[in-house]
């Protein structure tokens, strides 16, 4: 199917503005639309027209849109949603990995599978266009700049791309922002208990409710995902408080990023964040019975498993190899009475 004249004009303006790019973010699309159709300024249905032009171009095979089911890859700020990024397909690509000339910083890419090419090519383009001289920004700000998706880099932490001698936050000129950690503490008594950090807010709330009666922890801290890495240092005062044993436990999603977070926090802060074995064993038990969990193959750095106790690693690796991520939300309030010590 040949795209309409309007679609072809829009595409040509986009390519003229960014001839070397293979990935375009929403800002690029809006800019190209304004240049191609200045008379449509203020058009109430401008986003609808852009959506139609992109659909035509995808049918013509010149670009790839994000999956419709991927809500995070779309902008919903207005009535008509638009993709946060698109990938160009009409430029010839090398037929062999050996023909891609990687920048020295990405030399490791030669040893990785082609399934990582989209991400690596986007990073290579960003580096080539001045990324190495960029001022440091927060991880999600860099992610949306490179990929058009603020959560893309989050999902890559713990993958093969962030294995030793591969990508680093320093290379990408970004950092994990530090935010104050919210802690709900028990009133101190004669028993010293550990402090628990929980990755996600739903499970944080669940464990706070349960701990009021269960009294397993001196306090429950909300880790807020990757923010915990930079904020872990602030927990020293809570670890030294009356009623706390000084031990820090962690419970998060069983996926590569969920394991990378506490391991990285331990390395950067010097405070050992150990896995809460009882909660992870409970999560694995629930996950093995939950057949409805989505299976989506993914690659991971086997070293992320080293943070787990030895007796849990093989089972977690099996889930990963099956393409199964186990969200900590599988553990709900009624399950917590079955935590083993």
Overall pLDDT: 87
Class of secondary structure makeup: alpha/beta
Q: What name does the CATH topology of the largest domain carry?
A: Dna Topoisomerase Vi A Subunit, Chain: A, domain 2
End-to-end separation in angstroms reads: 63 Å
Helix content: 25-40%
Number of domain units: 3
Uncertain spans: none
Count of β-strands: 12
Instruction: Write down the secondary-structure element order.
Output: HEHHEEEEHEHHEEEHEHHEHEHH
Oligomer category: single chain
- Rg computed from alpha carbons, rounded to a whole number of angstroms: 23 Å
Described by the principal axes of the CA atoms, the overall outline is elongated
Beta-strand percent range: 5-15%
Question: Which strand order do you get reading across the main beta sheet?
Answer: 8-10-9-11-12
What is the overall number of helices? 12
Show the helix and strand layout.
Elements (H helix, E strand, L loop, with lengths): L4 H13 L5 E3 H11 L9 H14 L3 E2 L9 E2 L6 E2 L1 E4 L28 H12 L8 E2 H9 L4 H5 L17 E2 L6 E4 L7 E6 L2 H14 L4 E4 L4 H5 L4 H4 L4 E8 L4 H14 L3 E3 L1 H13 L20 H12 L20
Parallel strand pairs: 6-7, 9-10, 9-11, 11-12
Antiparallel strand pairs: 1-5, 2-5, 3-4, 8-10
Helix pairs in contact: 1-2, 1-3
Outline the structure in words:
This protein has helices spanning 5-17, 26-36, 46-59, 117-128, 139-147, 152-156, 201-214, 227-231, 236-239, 256-269, 277-289, 310-321, and strands at residues 23-25, 63-64, 74-75, 82-83, 85-88, 137-138, 174-175, 182-185, 193-198, 219-222, 244-251, 273-275. The radius of gyration is 23 Å and the shape is elongated. The chain folds into 3 domains: 5-88; 100-175; 182-338, 3-Layer(aba) Sandwich (Dna Topoisomerase Vi A Subunit, Chain: A, domain 2), CATH 3.40.1360. α1 packs across α2 (26-36) and α1 (5-17) packs across α3 (46-59). The longest helix is centred in the first third of the chain and has 14 residues, at 46-59. It starts with a helix and ends in a 20-residue tail after the last helix. Helices cover 37% and strands 12% of the residues. The protein is of the alpha/beta class.
